[in-house]
Specification:
alpha/beta, MutS, DNA mismatch repair protein, domain I, Nucleotidyltransferase, domain 5, MutS, DNA mismatch repair protein, Chain A, domain 3, 5 domains, seven-stranded mixed beta sheet, six-stranded mixed beta sheet, elongated
Length: 818
């Protein structure tokens, strides 16, 4: 490895041909940091170097001058580039990878002063990652695009590391919910949409927004892209897409082609997603319920972390998608629940299946890299091992066919058998594989007679080099004489400086003197080296050719391989739900399209695991057509918020096809879940706590339906008592009379209890508190009836507030009560 590029160099003020080439390429990629390949390094210059050096924690140095000024430079080793790319991508940068397309020797054949040809072969952005080191195994890495046509909005999204490609039409109010569900790492947006303040505010929370001219969303242009990519004459064979859906998907495809250049990934057929088929959970509610992340933004103690018992990366990503898009179709939900029940009741099958699946590599992502020709030998091996596991799963399920239900049995044909491809990959690939194709040595002996001959010839040359070393030792009487090699001078004879006087033959040509050793070359050694280089080059060319043939064999079966991987992900999801239910004592819910929402002995799946086993206090919830509004009173710390959240979470779990933490559950399918629990000042947008509370409440009132589940906590607390009470009162009446949703409404306004007498479907419940011997104990139990005290001072006492303050508070309370 040549470290000289990190040293200051003397340079004329004139720009060198190499730097001219750099500036020309950089001028075409002003929006990206440019990784410019120089031998064993990627180098960054000028502003790019100044930006990248502190992020990458590497030295900022200089290389040459421009207009009398030093040119800032930093560099990273090419073999460790992914580590550095990860740091830049996490900071939201995109990086253009500029590779050498020829060696310096090849450039000199064109002209002695020729600059090595270089070209940007890929642009890496947060939404176009494919390498495992840059991705989280169980997380989806979506790239999305948004556009509109005649006030109709479409969102397309793709996961280029797996090939998932979908599009959906939505109304403006649903953009936030969909983007929250997808959590795209990058969003391409029609710049015309950014004129809409609401859309602009919605996108402001997205990780990486890339505005694109409206012309890129032109219908003819985008449709032509899609037809050309999928090699079809009409998109109607996929689905009946709207104009805006075609525009969003086509622009997304053009962006992929722009960033990936000639190496396009595998993409599945474009799938149209109807948002009306899924339970809608808006962004605020997802945050309040801590579905995928806790309030600090970590997966720790989130619902996803608790539910995730999957044993494959593909299964983990599927679980995440199911949580993002819970179902509302009764038949499909029960189909899943029944399949989970099969694995729940058959422990032997479940354990055996999960053991086999645990050996399933990430075939989806390996296949995508193979398809785009950005693969390594390990990716071919991953496909081989994955197909072998797929065969094992098919055999296991076939053997246990009598224990399967119709749905699970229908998965069998999707697990195609790949005996021939597995055998060929086994015959071709060595057990131990190098990290890179260019390293060679990955084709097994016996697979290619021609390659075997080259390797044998190479081994013979190495033997001759060894024999030559013995000959030189004998001739010079230097027993520790060595023949070694490095990347600078190739093969050389090395002796210690003490033995220099013994080298007196003219055949030894001095090459290099170091502190303790001297290096020589000989004609015989150079001849053998030349033969070895030719042999190595031919062997690598042949291995590369064989590698490409193997890639083509895999690509030819890409659709079948993807189908098997998707099926294994589905089986992993179902078996993991059964394992979860067994471990945590969950029950199969009754799920139908009725109005009942009845949970007996319900528990919060996350909170119960944070407590000693058996100490979580279970609670019932019973909502139906005659009683669908619970008004709940009781002190803070008594468990109201946990109770509200757990019922919403149970609904989500049931509607993804999971068993639920309860003794019994009968869930009437809900179409939307809304929550308004806690808030904070939105200082950046100038919105106070109360304004945020009112905006969220208004959104609920304007969007909740009769089939929605609404959980509200402390509406109206951000203003004066009478204003807050009046707002809460009015909101309750509107939800009861107009929305008619299933509602759990927690409040400190005891005056609201009187609404039980005027609103027919509203009933009052409270959190039980026990007072004994001057002490107050929160029982965390929900009971029918009204709370008559708030216990706020007691909560303040528990917080450690000074005793004088608590004493004075009780005195004031006594005075006010009189």
């Amino acid at each position: 490895m040549n470290n000289s590029i990190f040293k200051e160099v003397e340079c004329n003020n004139a720009i060198t041909p190499m730097m001219q080439q750099y500036l020309s390429i950089k001028s075409q990629h002003k929006e990206q940091l440019l990784f410019y390949r120089m031998g064993d390094f990627y180098e960054l210059f000028f502003e790019d170097a100044i930006i990248a050096a502190p992020i990458l924690d590497i030295a900022l140095t200089k290389r040459g001058q421009q207009d009398g000024q030093n040119i800032p430079m930093c560099g990273v080793p090419f073999h460790a580039a992914e580590i550095y790319l990860q740091k830049l991508i996490k900071k939201g940068f995109s990086v253009a990878i500029c590779e050498q397309l020829e060696t310096p020797q090849e450039a000199k054949k064109r002209s002695y002063k020729a600059v090595v040809r270089r070209e940007v072969v890929r642009i890496i952005t947060p939404g176009t990652l494919m390498e495992d080191v840059l991705l989280s195994p169980k997380s989806n890495n979506y790239l999305a695009a948004i556009t509109s046509f005649k006030d109709n909005i479409a969102v397309a999204w793709v996961e280029i590391s797996t090939g998932e490609f979908s599009v959906s039409s939505i109304n403006e109010s649903a953009i936030s919910a969909l983007l929250s569900n997808l959590s795209p790492q990058e969003v391409i947006v029609d710049d015309m949409l950014l004129k809409d303040e609401q859309i602009r505010d919605t996108l402001s929370v997205s990780n990486f927004v890339t505005p694109k001219p409206h012309s890129l969303f032109d219908l003819k242009r985008t449709q032509a892209r899609l037809l050309n990519f999928f090699k079809i004459n009409s998109l109607t064979g996929f689905d009946h897409f709207t104009q805006q859906e075609i525009a969003a998907a086509g622009c997304l495809l053009e962006y992929i082609q722009y960033t990936q250049k000639r190496s396009l990934p595998y993409l599945s057929k474009l799938k149209r997603i109807n948002q009306d088929e899924f339970l809608l959970i808006d962004a605020k509610t997802r945050k309040h319920l801590e579905i995928e992340k806790n309030t600090l933004g970590s997966k720790n103690n989130s619902l996803l972390e608790v539910l995730d018992k999957t044993v494959t990366a593909t299964g983990g990503r599927l679980l995440s998608r199911q949580l993002n898009f819970p179902l509302i179709d009764e038949k499909t939900i029960n189909q899943r629940l029944n399949a989970v029940e099969v694995f729940f009741n058959n422990e032997e099958l479940r354990v055996a299946l999960r053991k086999i699946m645990s050996n399933f590599p990430d075939v989806e992502r390996a296949l995508s890299r193979i398809y785009s020709r950005r693969c390594a030998p390990k990716d071919l091996n991953a496909v081989k091992e994955g197909l072998f596991v797929s065969n094992q799963i098919a055999e296991l399920l076939q053997y246990n066919k009598e224990d399967l239900n119709d749905y699970l049995e229908s998965q069998l044909p999707q697990l195609a058998l790949f005996h021939d491809l597995i055998d060929q990959l086994k015959e071709a690939l060595n057990p131990e594989l190098p990290a890179n194709i260019k390293d060679g040595g990955y084709i097994r002996s016996g697979y290619s007679p021609q390659l075997d001959n080259l390797i044998n010839f190479k081994n013979n040359i190495n033997l001759k080099i060894g024999e030559l070393c013995d000959q030189y030792r004998f001739e010079t009487r230097i027993n520790n004489l060595k023949i070694q090699r490095n990347n600078v001078i190739g093969y050389f004879v090395e002796v210690t400086s003490l033995n220099n006087n013994k080298i007196n033959s003219e055949k030894f040509i001095h090459r290099q003197s170091l502190g303790n050793v001297t290096r020589y070359i000989t004609e015989d050694l150079k001849k053998l080296e030349s033969e070895l280089l030719v042999c190595d080059e031919r062997a690598l060319q042949l291995e590369t050719s064989i590698f490409e043939e193997l890639c083509e064999l895999i690509i030819a079966k890409a659709d079948s391989i993807v189908l098997s991987a998707v099926t294994i992900a589905r089986l992993d999801f179902l078996a993991s739900m059964a394992e979860l239910a067994k471990q945590n004592n969950y029950v199969k819910p009754i799920v139908d399209s009725g109005e009942n929402f009845i949970i007996k002995g319900g528990r919060h799946p996350v909170v119960e695991l944070l407590m000693p086993k058996g100490e979580f206090t279970t609670n019932d919830c019973a909502l139906d057509s005659n009683n669908n509004f619970w008004l709940m009173t009781g002190p803070n710390m008594a468990g109201k918020s946990t109770f509200l959240r757990q019922n919403a979470v149970v609904a989500i779990m049931a509607q993804i096809g999971s068993f639920v933490p309860a003794d019994e559950a009968h869930i009437g399918i809900v179409d939307k879940i809304f929550s308004r629990i806690g808030s904070g000042d939105n200082i950046a947008s100038g919105q106070s706590t109360f304004m945020v509370e009112m905006l969220e409440t208004a959104y609920i009132l304007n969007n909740a339906t009769k089939n929605s589940l609404v959980i509200l906590d402390e509406i109206g607390r951000g203003t004066s008592t009478y204003d807050g009470l009046s707002i809460a009162w009015s909101v309750i009446e509107y939800l009861h009379n107009t929305n008619q949703s299933k509602v759990l409404f927690a409040t400190h306004y005891h005056e609201l209890n009187s609404l039980e007498e005027t609103l027919s479907r509203l009933q009052c419940y409270n959190m039980l508190v026990q007072e004994w011997d001057g002490k107050t104990v929160f029982l965390h139990k929900v009971a029918k009836g009204r709370a008559n005290k708030s216990y706020g001072i007691h909560v303040a006492e528990l917080s450690g507030m000074p005793k004088e303050v608590i004493k004075r508070a009780y005195e004031i309370l006594q005075q006010l009560s009189q």
